[in-house]
Design a protein that fits this description.
Protein name: Dinitrogenase iron-molybdenum cofactor biosynthesis protein
Strand content: 15-25%
CATH class: Alpha Beta
InterPro entries: Di-Nase_FeMo-co_biosynth, DiNase_FeMo-co_biosyn_sf, MTH1175_dom
Strand order of the largest sheet: 3-2-1-4-5
CATH architecture: 2-Layer Sandwich
CATH topology: Nucleotidyltransferase, domain 5
Number of strands: 5
Number of domains: 1
Organism: Candidatus Terraquivivens tikiterensis
Length: 131
């Protein structure tokens, strides 16, 4: 099964980015082999719709789970519609959160964790996490 982690850099040792739609990279990992593909997030600088564009990118790569810090309402809706499980509240390195997920230590979320336009620099999420 393939999972996607929002990342600050292009390796398994990168930190998880707390933003889903505006993270610089997505790392798609095959849980069985730990082989991974790094995808630059071309939507990260979009004026609007970054979360929805990001969902299209990872859905096209076959990811069944997204692990990130936070997810906004539009991305949440698009991920849910695509049948992709959403795990929020993740922090640490990509490698660490993948291992936590494999051990069942990370749980899915059933609602957005921030308001729209989180991570654009001026807005504040409604449940902004401190990392």
């Amino acid at each position: 099964m393939k999972i996607c982690v929002s990342a600050t850099a292009d390796s398994l040792d990168a930190q998880v980015d707390p933003r889903f739609g505006r993270c610089p990279y997505f790392i798609i990992i095959d849980l069985e082999t730990m082989q991974f593909e790094v995808i630059p997030n071309l939507a990260s600088g979009a004026m609007g719709g970054a979360g929805i564009q990001a969902v299209q990118t990872i859905a096209n790569k076959g990811a069944k789970v997204v692990i990130t810090g936070n997810v906004g309402p539009n991305a949440f809706q698009a991920l849910s519609a695509a049948g992709i499980k959403i795990v929020t509240g993740a922090h640490g390195t990509v490698r660490e959160v993948v291992e936590k997920y494999k051990r069942g230590e990370l749980k899915g979320t059933s609602a957005p964790t921030v308001g729209g336009h989180f991570g654009m620099g001026g807005g504040r999420g409604w449940r902004q996490r401190p990392w």
